């Protein structure tokens, strides 16, 4: 398949198994360094996986566990505090992939929040235990009116979507013209250096990003990094974005040096 970022047709196979030893082909685009599963799952396959299987297979439970909730609440609180100058201004918030609701709960005193969480057990926990407006709807263009929210959050969600550029562009339609779009994904550079050997890839992480390819995906979707948070987010895969007038073309995100470096880091991980 051609790369969804730079449209290059040339890629390199870097792994044939997932973190559990099951068959899973993972490739690196030689045009930009985006890492992806081959083949990419269909919409129907992902709908079933995230509604019924993901939390059990990768989190060990259909409903959130106490230790996980406490850890996530601390992370959400620390993130809100660190970027209070941006997040505290939000009045209407959309959290796509709300999980067990920690972020929405953390901002609930100052903002009206809506969450989307495909796992039924986690969404039910958010509604019954935290009294949050968390829905199990699937993402689609008519899910919300255009320009409804002034803050949208995708925390460890984009890597799970089978069309990252198209999904970002679709969700950005729900963002007000001066709104803020926060996206965070796992960093494949960091994973390659710190994960135990072979504990890297899995079916749920369809695309694996590093700082360059995440910002490239945003640019292809008509989003650019906010200057006021750029220093704090430098060299990370958590980025605050705003709308920009134009989208980047595939050739604008070509970076063969990044591709070589990502492939080398993955090979070193397995070595």
Ordered list of secondary-structure elements with their pairings:
Elements: E1 11-17, E2 23-29, E3 35-38, H1 43-59, H2 66-82, H3 84-87, E4 92-96, H4 102-106, E5 112-116, H5 120-129, E6 134-135, E7 149-155, H6 164-172, E8 175-184, H7 188-194, E9 207-208, H8 211-220, E10 223-225, H9 227-233, E11 238-243, H10 256-270
Parallel strand pairs: 4-5, 4-7, 5-6, 7-8
Antiparallel strand pairs: 1-2, 2-3, 3-9, 8-11, 10-11
Q: Main β-sheet: number of strands, strand sense, barrel status?
A: 7 strands, mixed
* Structural class based on helices, strands and sheet pairing: alpha/beta
Coarse shape: globular
Please trace the helix and strand order, writing H or E for each element: EEEHHHEHEHEEHEHEHEHEH
* Cross-sheet strand order for the largest sheet: 6-5-4-7-8-11-10
In total, the number of strands is: 11
Contiguous low-pLDDT stretches (5 residues minimum) are none
Mean pLDDT: 93
| Oligomeric form | single chain
Rg, Cα atoms, Å: 18 Å
From the N-terminal CA to the C-terminal CA, the straight-line distance is 27 Å
* Proportion of residues in β-strands: 15-25%
């Amino acid at each position: 398949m051609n790369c969804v970022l730079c449209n290059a047709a040339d890629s390199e196979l870097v792994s044939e198994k997932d973190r559990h030893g099951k068959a899973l082909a993972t490739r690196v685009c030689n045009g930009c360094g985006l890492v992806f599963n081959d083949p990419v799952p269909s919409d129907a396959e992902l709908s079933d996986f995230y509604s019924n299987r993901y939390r059990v297979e990768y989190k060990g439970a259909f409903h959130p566990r106490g230790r996980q909730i406490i850890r996530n609440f601390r992370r959400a609180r620390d993130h809100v505090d660190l970027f209070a100058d941006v997040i505290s201004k939000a009045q209407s918030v959309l959290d796509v992939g709300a999980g067990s609701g920690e972020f929405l709960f953390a901002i609930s005193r100052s903002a009206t929040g809506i969450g989307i969480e495909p796992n039924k057990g986690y969404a039910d926990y958010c509604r019954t235990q935290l009294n949050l407006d968390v829905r199990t709807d699937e993402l689609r263009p008519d899910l919300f009116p255009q320009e409804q929210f002034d803050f949208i959050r995708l925390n460890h969600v984009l890597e799970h979507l089978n069309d990252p550029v198209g999904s970002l562009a679709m969700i950005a339609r729900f963002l007000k013209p001066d709104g803020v779009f926060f996206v965070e994904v796992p960093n494949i550079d960091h994973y390659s250096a710190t994960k135990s050997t072979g504990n890297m890839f899995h079916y749920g992480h369809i695309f694996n990003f590093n700082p360059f390819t995440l910002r490239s995906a945003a640019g292809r979707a008509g989003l650019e990094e906010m200057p006021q948070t750029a220093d704090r987010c430098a060299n990370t895969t958590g980025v605050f974005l705003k709308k920009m007038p134009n989208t980047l073309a595939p050739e604008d995100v070509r970076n063969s040096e990044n591709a070589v470096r990502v492939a080398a880091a993955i090979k070193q991980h397995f070595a």
